[in-house]
Amino acid sequence: xxxxxxxxxxxxxxxxxxxxxxxxxxxxxxxxxxxxxxxxxxxxxxxxxxxxxxxxxxxxxxxxxxxxxxxxxxxxxxxxxxxxxxxxxxxxxxxxxxxxxxxxxxxxxxxxxxxxxxxxxxxxxxxxxxxxxxxxxxxxxxxxxxxxxxxxxxxxxxxxxxxxxxxxxxxxxxxxxxxxxxxxxxxxxxxxxxxxxxxxxxxxxxxxxxxxxxxxxxxxxxxxxxxxxxxxxxxxxxxxxxxxxxxxxxxxxxxxxxxxxxxxxxxxxxxxxxxxxxxxxxxxxxxxxxxxxxxxxxxxxxxxxxxxxxxxxxxxxxxxxxxxxxxxxxxxxxxxxxxxxxxxxxxxxxxxxxxxxxxxxxxxxxxxxxxxxxxxxxxxxxxxxxxxxxxxxxxxxxxxxxxxxxxxxxxxxxxxxxxxxxxxxxxxxxxxxxxxxxxxxxxxxxxxxxxxxxxxxxxxxxxxxxxxxxxxxxxxxxxxxxxxxxxxxxx
Length: 491
What we know:
The protein has helices spanning 17-46, 55-65, 67-88, 153-219, 225-260, 279-283, 293-314, 348-352, 371-440, 446-481, 485-488, and strands at residues 51-53, 93-104, 134-149, 267-269, 319-331, 356-366. The protein is α+β, with helices and mostly antiparallel strands.
C-alpha cells in the first residue's frame, strides 16, 4: 500500500493541505487496493467470460484444429504414400490371364491389323466356304516383364518422391510456424484489449465517485449546479469508452477463436507475464539455430525443381527390359480337322482341358530416338522454374533480414517506453489524488479535476499498451528469426 503526499507549494494559508492529503490518500488508496484486487474477476464475470486460456493452450489447440494445418498434414501423408508407390514401381509386372471361349475357327488368307485391339484372334483353316462348326477353346497365360535397367530413371523418380515428401513436411512446418505467430499475436491483442477494458472500468468508477460528490455538494449549495452537469457528462463519456473497449475485446476474442479453430466462446487471458519483459531480451540472445521455416520451404521447392531436371534428362536414355511368357492352350477342334471338318467336339471339358504349352523368355531394349529432342525443352523450362524459385528464396531472405532489423529497433524503443510508463502513471496518480483532495475541499473546480482524470486514464492505457508492445516486438523478432521456442519457452 502506498500513501502519496501532495505538493505543499500551493501557498494556501487557510487550510493544511498536507494533513488533508495524508488522511484522504490513505483512505482512497485502501479503497483502490480492494477494488483492483477483485476488479479483474468482476469485469469478466459481468460480461460473461467463462474460460481462462493460457498462451500455450491457445497455440496447442490452434495447431490441432486449424483447417489448413490439418489439410497440409494430409498432403504430407499422401506424399509419403506416393514415395512408397514409386519404390514399388521398380517391381516387375506379373500378369495372370485365363479365358474360355466358344465360337468358330474360320480362317482366311490375307493381311490383318488388329487396330486398337479390336481384331479377333480366331485361327483355323482357310476353307473354300463359310461353315458354322463351333467348339470350346481356352487360353491360360502367365506374362512377366521387368524394366530392370532404366539408366537411372527409376531411381530419380524415387529421389523426386523423397524430395516431395520433404517439401510437404517443410510446408507443414512453416504453416505451423506461421500459425503459432498468428495465434500468439492474436492472444497478445486480446490480452491488451482486456487490460484496456480494466482501465476503462477504473476510469468509470472514478467518474461515478466524483459525480456523487459533485451532486451532493451541489444539493448542499457548496458548488454551482454546472458541476453536477459536467460530472454527469464525464460519467457518460466514461461509459461510452467502456462500451467501445468491450466491443474491441469481442473483436479480438473472435479473431483468436477463428485462429484456434474452435467453437465461439469467450476467453480470459493470462495477465501475469505481461507486466514483465521477456527473459531472452535480458540475455540478448535470440539468434536462430537453424534456417527459417519459410526459407526451408523455399529451399525444398528449389531442390524439387532441380530433381525434376535430373529426371527429365534421364529420359534421353533407353530402357532395358526382361520378359517371359508361359502359355497353355486348349481347343475342341482336333488335330485332324484340316482334313476332316467333322473332327471337333462341342463338349465343354474337351474344349477347355489344356493340351498345348509354350514358353518364351527374352531381353529387349527400347529407345525412342525423338525423346531427347522433346525432353530437352522440358529440361530448359524446368531450369527456368528453378531460377524463379531461387529468386523467391532470395526475396524472402531479404524481407526476413529487414524484418529482423526493424524488430531490433522496435524492441529498443518499446523497452525505453516500458521504463517510462510507470513514471507517467505514478505522476498522473499523484496529480489525480492532489486534485481530487483539493476538489473535495473546494479548492479547485471540476474542470481541473476532469483533466487529471483524463491524464491518469491515458497514462494507464499507455502503460497497458507499452507493456504489451514489448511482447509484440519480441514476437516480431521471433517471427523474423524463425525460432518460436524462444517465445513459447517464456511461459
